[in-house]
Amino acid sequence: MKFLIMGPLTMDTIVREKAVCHSTGGAVHYQAAMLSNLGIDTTAVVTVSKEDESLLNAFPDDVQVFPVFVDKTMKFKNIYPNHDPNHRIQRANIPVNPINPDNIPELDFKSFDAFLLSPLSPFDLPVETVEYLSQFQIPIYAGVQGYLRHLNGFKVFLKPWNNFQEFLKFFDGIFLDEMEARVILGTHIHELTDVAKTLAGFGPDEVIITKGDTGAIVYSGKTDDIYEIPAFIPKQTMDPTGLGDTFMAAYVIKRMETSDPEICGNFASMASTIKLEGKGVFCGNRDTIEGRLKKVKD
User: Fold this and answer.
1) CA distance linking residue 33 with residue 282, whole number of Å
2) Is the separation of the CB atoms in 134 and 140 below 8 Å?
């Protein structure tokens, strides 16, 4: 399998139980580790400033990285004030660094099996870029969190995604978390199953809504069914940053192998659990995930 991942690389500060950690971040960073550890041929197109070019060293050696150099690197501060991994306070410095059709590197786009798009702000991957990628007839999966994110000073808050219809017709699957799902439509529709079905009506075959330590739901437009995905109990809780990104990458890997949303969801949920148990990116492999799933079933 061969995947293209695209989005901003970030400079992260993580504050957890009075400990402060500085690290490379961004959905593409966490996804690259997941894909690499499962042996996926991965190409990453990322925005980063020339000044922070050293951040590129965080990618696995087998990931082919194409930087789109910009003036300033995006910065995030993730604060976890207690033991609840679902409780996060976020601060950010978000420059306008779009990846446009005219600054995307020249690649053999038709050689890929899937595109994973991971904007962290409304500016990162405009609709023109998504439309450009759609012409290659490759499945496009998107983590849509960035399209909802806005700043009040440095404080991150969510707003409805007003032009979501323009984007969704190009996506085969979208990923968002429970909080984002309750905001995205800007309407009275708040039941997660109804949100998923509404969003799917505008294009995506699958809508995946993660719910932290209560699992996830997957709505399949093809079967018109909701699939409840469990959360697996971690051996320890170390680092929740990047869980959704890990889930998305793991789900799409499995999605290329099977059309069963439940199998894909369980695989992604266990991958996220294993990532939560350690610091930084996912460090397991396929055998680790499948072995843990087998133990749960047994």
Assistant:
1) 6
2) yes
Two structure tokens written together for 186: 């800007």
| AA identity, residue 229 | I
Across residues 179-194, what is the average pLDDT?
93
CA distances from 100 to 31, 189, 287, 294 (A): 21, 33, 38, 43
Tell me 58's DSSP state: G
The whole-model pTM stands at 0.94
Can you tell me the distance from the alpha carbon of 263 to that of 250, in angstroms, rounded to the nearest whole number? 11
Angle at 270 between CA 112 and CA 121, to 5 degrees: 55
- CB-CB contact of 28 with 46 (8 Å): yes
Q: Does domain 2-297 have CATH number 3.40.1190.20?
A: yes
Do 63 and 32 touch, CB atoms closer than 8 A? Answer: yes
The angle that helices 261-276 and 243-255 make with each other, rounded to 10 degrees, is 150
pLDDT class for 85, splitting at 50, 70, 90? low
